[in-house]
Amino acid sequence: MSTGTANRTVKMLKGSSAPGEMLRAKRSAASSRLPPTSEQPKR
Predict the structure, then answer these.
(1) Which of 2, 8, 16, 23 is the most exposed place for a label (fewest CB within 10 A)?
(2) Which of 27, 41, 3 is nearest to 11 (CA)?
(3) pTM for the complete prediction?
(4) Cα separation of 30 and 23, whole Å?
(5) How do residues 1-43 score in pLDDT, each as one tens digit?
(6) Angle between helices 2-17 and 19-33 (to 10 degrees)
(7) Where in this protein does the record put region Disordered (predicted)?
């Protein structure tokens, strides 16, 4: 049980504590799909 709660807290902390990483992953995927020229004006 304790391990489950710990995993949950870690996941939550990771999601709300490191939004930049998520954004970076999203941008990476977007950049891979479309050219950077279209990604720059988006942000």
Answers:
(1) 2
(2) 3
(3) 0.28
(4) 10
(5) 466 666 666 665 555 556 667 677 777 776 666 665 655 555 5
(6) 60
(7) 1-43
